[in-house]
Design brief:
The structure holds 2 protein chains of 2 kinds. Chain A is an alpha/beta fold. In chain A, 38% of the residues lie in helices and 27% in strands. In chain A, the strands form 2 sheets. Chain A has a 6-stranded mixed beta sheet, sandwiched between helices. In chain B, helix 5 packs antiparallel against helix 6, helix 7 packs across helix 8 and helix 8 packs across helix 10. The longest helix of chain B has 33 residues. The N terminus of chain B is likely disordered. The chains are: A alpha/beta, B mainly alpha. At the A-B interface, helix 2, helix 3 and helix 5 of A face helix 9 and helix 10 of B.
Chain lengths: 252, 319
């Protein structure tokens, strides 16, 4: 994929003081342009705008102004076209992805049957193989509350994956997990990536970012001051903010 | 729900059961003098607050099956209910005995047909209003959250007007003024409509609170997989909200059945009006009104039981 972002601004209403409605600017004229890559990792300090940027890229929020295009195709701004766009991609959030009233199996079948028009039988056939491969087949009858955090997140990734999306967007997929569960989720992402799925992901796992990223975008203060290859990002930090960030995250 | 998590997360060791209330340990207690130091069942020092909490049945707690011969938890619950009902009956009987009331069941028995007819009318009106108020409540709840300023104002004014005024006034104005003005002469239809409008306002607020309780992240998940707003509502939000609002809805429906007794003021020949008439024919007040109370209980108790069954049916832990 080739992602180009131009002058992206995202403002939210913050609070109303007197008659004046104040706005918080989360993305401030953010621009970036990647090469032809398959995995883009967004890193940076909390509150810098990573998640806001990812939500726009995944078609969940519409920016205040600015342009985003994947492979030359600009993202639409109206909800109906955006919904069509969202059906071609997959998004996984930090937590609470799954629908708690449905079993793991029904969580997987829901988008296939309701959104993509598969018959129940066809949908079941489609999820069988990946469920086996990721050793989740024995848990399909359980509701999310009966699954471990890692199992929940792997089901969530699978749910995004079985609709055969053009690319996956992951927003801190392991931040809510214990270390060992983190490992199983990261291993799954790596395997899916090796099979050729494209990723845009936000993560705090620097070692993981280094392994999977083709390019790393450093998001801070609503902009992307640094966008470079993974090797260069860690070897030669060119920006003092990246330096400070890496000092914090890499020190034990 | 955080309380449910306390149980699952707080205890590292699920075995032996820590649910002290429903699963008492029958194993012989080892005294500290036995030579072996009594060790707590947990790897770490148990938090005293959690043990205190274990005496309360938290939502999501599954009562352990304790079966010893004929004795079972279900049986003991039935016995307890029976004893309490008997005590209440005894107290009432004592009170009646003190005022030296003279019973005359024979006079009232003559009118048993009238009681039955009135009861059936109340059943029919309640069922119709139950459906009506559920429909009105759902639509109003959707209006309350429509995002359209005008529609929201309409729904809000309706809810506040109905909830802020006595049903008696609504029935009198609604029937003698509004229904007459629009040419609705069937007082039964008018009664059902007015009762539905009344109860619908309460239902709307119950449903709205249920919709509001669904986390924002669930809507995000719906949008992420490409569901339309209507699909999200139907497949994700409503099924989860139903479980949350069931107890309140059941309470509201029980109220609705009893509120139908006020329809007697617009001369609808329902249960209460018939009991009043029997009373005026026979001058046997208690004999007329005690069957009335029992008749309403015959409607409200199954409603409560159905609600409890549905609650169990829809139960699942939130992640």
């Amino acid at each position: 994929m080739n992602l180009v972002v131009q002058d992206l601004v995202q403002q939210f209403p913050a609070r109303t003081t007197g008659r004046r409605a104040e706005t918080a600017t989360v993305l401030d004229q953010l621009s970036l342009s990647t090469g032809e890559i398959s995995t883009l990792v967004l890193v940076g300090p909390s509150g810098g705008g990573k998640s806001t940027l990812l939500r726009i890229l995944a078609g969940l929020d519409v920016p205040t102004s600015g342009q985003v295009s994947f492979d030359g195709q600009p993202l639409p701004r109206d909800e109906v076209t955006l919904r069509r766009y969202r059906r071609t991609i997959g998004t996984v959030f930090q937590a609470y992805n799954l629908f708690p009233h449905l079993t793991a199996m029904d969580n997987l079948l829901l988008p296939l049957v309701q959104v993509h028009g598969l018959s129940e039988a066809a949908a079941r056939a489609r999820v069988r193989e990946p469920l086996e491969r990721f050793r989740l087949a024995e848990h399909t009858h359980k509701r999310p509350a009966e699954l471990s955090g890692g199992q929940k997140q792997r089901i969530a990734i699978l749910r995004a994956l079985v609709v055969q999306p053009r690319r996956l967007f992951l927003d801190e997929p392991t931040s809510a997990l214990d270390p060992e569960m983190r490992a199983e989720v990261l291993a799954m992402i790596e395997e899916v990536r090796r099979e050729g799925t494209q990723f845009v992901l936000v993560t705090h796992e620097m070692a993981f970012a280094r392994r999977v990223a083709d390019e790393i975008a450093f998001v801070a203060d609503g902009r992307v001051p640094v966008l470079t290859t993974a090797a260069d990002f860690f070897a030669r930090p060119t920006d003092p903010r990246v330096d400070a960030f890496l000092q914090l995250t890499l020190s034990p | 729900m955080p309380v449910a998590n306390v149980r699952r997360r707080g205890m590292g060791n699920p075995d032996p059961p820590h649910d002290a209330a429903s699963a008492p340990s029958y194993a012989p207690q080892r005294k500290s003098g036995d030579g072996v130091r009594a060790t707590p069942p947990h790897h770490t020092t148990p938090l005293p607050s959690l043990h205190a909490a274990a005496n309360v049945r938290l939502p999501g707690h599954r009562a352990a099956v304790t079966r010893r011969g004929w004795y079972s938890v279900g049986m003991s619950r039935w016995l307890a209910h029976l004893v309490v009902v008997a005590l209440f009956g005894l107290a009432l009987w004592g009170a009646v005995a003190r005022v030296e009331y003279e019973w005359n069941w024979a006079g009232v028995w003559e009118y048993r047909q009238k009681f039955l007819q009135g009861w059936l009318v109340t059943v029919a009106i309640s069922l119709a209003a139950l459906v009506g108020s559920t429909v009105i409540g759902s639509l109003t709840a959707i209006l309350l959250r429509s995002g359209n300023t005008f529609l929201e104002a309409v729904a809000r004014v309706y809810v506040e007007l109905i909830r802020g005024t006595p049903l008696l006034v609504q029935l009198l104005i609604g029937f003698y003024v509004v229904a007459t003005a629009i040419g609705l002469e069937n007082r039964y239809a008018a009664g059902v409509a007015l009762l539905s409008l009344f109860s619908g306002a309460y239902m709307a607020e119950i449903f709205r609170s249920g919709l509001d309780a669904i986390p924002r992240a669930q809507i995000d998940s719906c949008r992420a997989i490409g569901l339309t707003p209507w699909q999200s509502l139907r497949l994700v939000v409503v099924p989860q909200a139903v479980r949350l609002v069931l107890p309140s809805v059941a309470g509201q429906l029980v109220s609705l059945v009893k509120d139908s007794s006020l329809l007697s003021v617009i001369a609808i020949s329902e249960f209460t009006l018939n009991a009043q008439e029997v009373n005026s024919f026979t001058y046997s007040t208690l004999e007329s009104y005690l069957p009335l109370a029992v008749g309403y209980l015959m409607l409200t108790l199954p409603l409560s039981a159905a609600a409890r069954w549905l609650e169990r049916h829809f139960r699942y832990e939130t992640a």
